[in-house]
Amino acid sequence: xxxxxxxxxxxxxxxxxTDALQIAMMGLGLQPGDEVITADFxxxxxxxxxxxxxxTPVLVDVEVYNMNISIDAIKKAITPKTKAIxxxxxxxxxxxxxxxxxxAKEHNLYVIxxxxxxxxxxxxxxxxxxxxxxxxxxxxxxxxxxSKNLPPVLFPVGCITAQIGPEFPLLLAVNAPVxxxxxxxxxxxx
Length: 190
Fold this sequence. Notes:
This protein has helices spanning 2-6, 17-27, 44-52, 71-77, 97-107, 169-173; strands at residues 10-14, 35-39, 56-60, 82-86, 110-114, 122-124, 130-132, 139-143, 158-162.
């Protein structure tokens, strides 16, 4: 299962990677005006979702050697309004998640990994441990669109990966089974 492969508590399917980002941000309770730091080198959907939710995107530079978000740029961009960091893992290479999680812990920020381009990538930590991209932050957002670095899928689909649990009921409610009522006097569609 994907939970086992990535080492996460929850995998929540959704329509696509953009929805995964949106649902993740909504599920964490981010509010209009909150600042969200992300890389300036990303697909438009990353910033689109931030703006759609009336959050304030704060775009920062990437590292030249791997095109992932710059740790120094993150540090310089943090203000009292900053509530989250969205590292965008690119080209099968993960951002420096050890440093990002340390910054997030220091400033009490959420980390929402945009993992559309690096599912399966390993992040090596200074103690020698390895964790999969998308399984380190509070929440990850993944796309399985046919152009991603996965075996081809015939239709766009995505998922949210989460290490968090009951403290975020809105996020987990997305994956709760829904029983649709059957209108009276109707026949099932065959």
